[in-house]
Sequence to fold (210 residues):
Amino acid sequence: MTAAEPSAHPEPSRSIEIELKFDVEDGTPLPEWTTLPGVASVGDAEVRELDARYLDTAEFGLASAGYALRRRSGGPDAGWHIKGPRIGGGRTELHWPLGETDDVPDAVRAAIAPVTDSALTPIARILNTRTAYALNDGTGGLVAEFVDDRVTASDVRSGAVREWREWEIELGPAAPADPREFFAAVEAAVIAAGGRAAASASKLARALGY
Fold:
């Protein structure tokens, strides 16, 4: 075992990320989330300071195949993450612990090997002051997590720095089996508050100017 990996070949945790993203102005007020179907209460604000460093090949081999690789510190899911292509409105995310160094763990390299075996270099750093709120049902089950993000992103290759505010809402274990009505209500609440659909598909894309 090397210092770069927490164990020889650890199995990653796996989740399906189903979320909506919105662009908002600096002073946009938060919606009243208890008006959403199934949401009975909103948890206390939880502030997380996140620092994510993204890597890709010189030819953006991961991005061109729909993948993203990052090492993120801060928050409850700190670690190495691989996000897969979007399929049916969701993305599969694999997660490994941080390890002892910034070097890409062997287990992570093995996971991306079917996509690319080229050298990986830093492409972006994203600092994010995130305020998270749990949207709970009447029994305390998590219907969704809403996060209010204030982002400072650096394009490592060009040196460009971009700042913005965005909202994300991600389904939780107590979400409805068919979330279409729920997401429609979320969109209506965000538009009423002054938000709009996100112009970029991801923070990484926006950090790189897309």
In short: The chain is about 15% helix and 40% strand. The first strand starts at residue 13 and ends at 17.
